Every structure is written in C-alpha cells, then in structure tokens.
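[audit] Reproducing an earlier prediction to check determinism. Same input, same settings, fresh worker. If the tokens differ from the archived copy the diff job will pick it up downstream; this log only records the rerun itself.
[audit] input (212 residues):
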Amino acid sequence: MHFFDVFPFAIMVYHKMKKNFYILFLFFAACSFAFPVTGYSTTDIKIGVVDLSRVFEHYKKRKALDKKLKDTESDYESMIRDKQDEIMKLKDDVALLDMGTDSRSKKEDSIQRKSIELEVYAKFAEQNLLKKYKDYFEGIYIDVSNAVIQFGRKNGYDLILKNEEPELESSEITDLQFKIGIKGVLYYSNKVDITSRIIEDLNNNFRGSIDD
C-alpha cells in the first residue's frame, strides 16, 4: 500500500505541485526575467528569448533530482509497507487467540502502538517528501534565473524574455485566463532565441551529483 493511502491529502498536493510547476515557474520567471527598457530606442536594445519548457526538460540536474526524489518516495513506501505488514500479521495472530486472555491483550496493545507509530511515520514521510519537492522546484528556478542573469550580463543583453506555450485545456475560466496571461512572447525569430545556450551553461555548471 502506498503511504499516500494513509494520508491522501499528500498525493493531491504532490501531483498538484508537479502539474502546476510550470505555471508557478513561469509566473515567477515573468517577474524576474523582464527588465525595463525606458530610455532606449529599439535599435539600441539587445534582446534574447528563453523557452523555459525546453530548459526544464533538458536540464540534467532536473533529471537527477527527479530520480533522487522517486528513490526517496520508494524508500518511504517500502518502510510503510513493512509496518503495515507487521500490523496485519499481529491481527492474524490475535484472531487465533481466545478473548480475554493476557496474550491476546498484549497483542492488541502492540497493534494499537504500532498503528500509532505507522501514522506518525506516514505523516513524517508525507511532510518530508513535500518539502523536498518544494525545495526542488525552488532550486531549479534559482539555477535557471541565475544562469539567465549571468548570461545576459556577460553578453551585453538589455532584455531577456521568457516564452512558454501554455496548455490551454482547463475546467476553470480563471485558470485559462492565468495560463494565457503568462505567455510572455507571441512571436520571436530564431536569432534572438538563446535557449540552447542557457541549457548549455546550466549543464556545464552541473557537477553530476545531487547533495542531500
């Protein structure tokens, strides 16, 4: 049994975080990657555009973090399954004992104690995993944001914009309006697309391992 079965709220938040990460990522990126252009003529401005979906897809650190988090979740699931199996075995043992006997009473007390331990551990696992995903998303955003800023300064850019093709399928009009609103650029030519160079910089700076 999955530990999210013990705390179903976690699976809802977990999948919602992953599903909406691009939207949150782009919202913060829209605030961070756009710079004022007052005082420049259009011929003076050096502009670049970054496709954040491609950056996220091809960033090696993101792939490594995905694997690490899945391994962590698997470890939690295994531990919780072991605890659940232990409780089930105790229940089977209790069913074979006579009512009112000391041995049955001790087994029942053990079941109660281990059930509480399982609940506490499942809650810990839920909170810890959600925190890891939160830190993961924040870390990836900071990496990309810093890479864009450093690239822009190094190469003399005045303005670097983000671009994203949002998924327009939505059951809520407010979600649809938000998704349309975060699209940063309606059109740009390949000569201002610096996505590949940002990905290259990010991957060159990634050591290949993930610290705890």
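[audit] rerun output stored. Observation attached for the diff report: The chain has one domain: 3-205.
[audit] end
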